[in-house]
Amino acid sequence: MLTLYWPWLLLLLPLPLLLRRQDTQHEEGARLQLPGIAQNGKLASGRAPSGSRSGYWLLWCLLVLAVARPQWLGEPIELPSQGRDLMLAVDLSGSMQIEDMVVAGKTVDRFSLVQHVVSEFIERRKGDRLGLILFADHAYLQAPLTQDRRSVAQFLREAQIGLVGKQTAIGEAIALAVKRFDKMKESNRVLILLTDGANNAGNIEPEQAASIAAKRNVTLYTIGVGAEVMERRTLFGRERVNPSMDLDEAQLKALAETTKGKYFRARNSEELAQIYQAIDKLEPVSRDQLSYRPQAELFYWPLALMLIISALLALGHLPQFQFRLPSRAQSKLSQGRRNS
């Protein structure tokens, strides 16, 4: 959008007309001139030819326009806000490929469900910084804290089971999140850890990592994923089994309570979606979003044009533009001059 930084300076545009009118009245009253006699290239009235006056008037308009500072304002751009930092830690261990979940009437593995639901959760977190940690044998930072929600969701969709091992390093995931939070100041720190098993890998115990998180003001929400009943085929027919036998709910609940967080159980897609809706309410989106509009100065365009026209006037190469009045106005002006 084109705008002027000091638009009130446009009030100076008629200033030469006012000054010329005063000078003309003063000269007509101070001396007597013979009509039709030219002096030093000027008319007897002491005025420059109308073409030159038009050129000087154009120069003045360009000068005033340049001083008024024309600018081009771009579209608003959101700035990172000093608000909520939310890290997602997602389990990629081998058990996440168990097909005991249903999405849109189709049986899928646990990780496919997580990708589907968590992507929608990420999209709703407009205004927060989001990060992504993937963990199995060890924990790895897949996406640092950023407001680019689209990239975080893309990294989650591209992740694959077994990418970082087969086991479950819950303690390392918590410790890595705390380490990343330490680089951010003045923010609400939230870690959502999603797993379907128990800690059986890593170099730090989950209880120790949760204690450190509590001291660093990190709130931990833990989610246990997995159905309680699943049918499978055997040599003797179908049997019902519990696919979540390895899930250590007591540990996940204790870790959340250490940081004043909460533990959730997701047995199906509906429960997982409801869990993230509950987290939305417990940790509302940050609203102190700032934005700015990039601006580009354009004053040099009218200034450059003014310099070019000035050079042409000095060299006498500028065409003589004459602004003619309508015939009726010209006749009245001539009659007024004869009467004077």
In short:
With 340 residues, this protein is an alpha/beta fold. It is 39% helix and 22% strand. It is elongated, with a radius of gyration of 38 Å.
The sequence of SSEs as H and E is EHHEEEEEHEEHHEHEEEHEHEEHH
In total, how many beta strands?
Answer: 15
Strand content: 15-25%
Structural class of the helix and strand makeup? alpha/beta
Shape: elongated
Strand order across the largest sheet: 8-7-4-9-10-13
Q: Indicate the percent of residues in helices.
A: 25-40%
Rounded Rg: 38 Å
**Residue windows where pLDDT falls under 50 for at least 5 positions:** 32-47, 321-325
Average pLDDT confidence is 79
Distance between the termini: 51 Å
Major sheet attributes:
6 strands, mixed
Count helical runs: 10
Provide keyphrases for this structure:
single chain; 340 residues; alpha/beta; 6-stranded mixed sheet; 3-stranded antiparallel sheet; 10 helices; 15 strands; 39% helix
Question: Could you characterize what this model shows?
Answer:
The chain is α/β, with parallel strands linked by helices and 340 residues long. Helices cover 39% and strands 22% of the residues. It has ten helices and 15 strands. It has helices at 15-30, 50-67, 110-124, 149-158, 170-181, 206-215, 249-258, 269-282, 300-315, 327-339; strands spanning 2-4, 70-73, 77-79, 84-91, 101-103, 106-108, 129-135, 139-146, 188-195, 218-225, 230-234, 237-241, 262-266, 290-292, 295-297. A six-stranded mixed β-sheet has the order 8-7-4-9-10-13, sandwiched between helices. A three-stranded antiparallel β-sheet has the order 1-2-15. Residues 32-47 and 321-325 have low confidence and may be disordered.
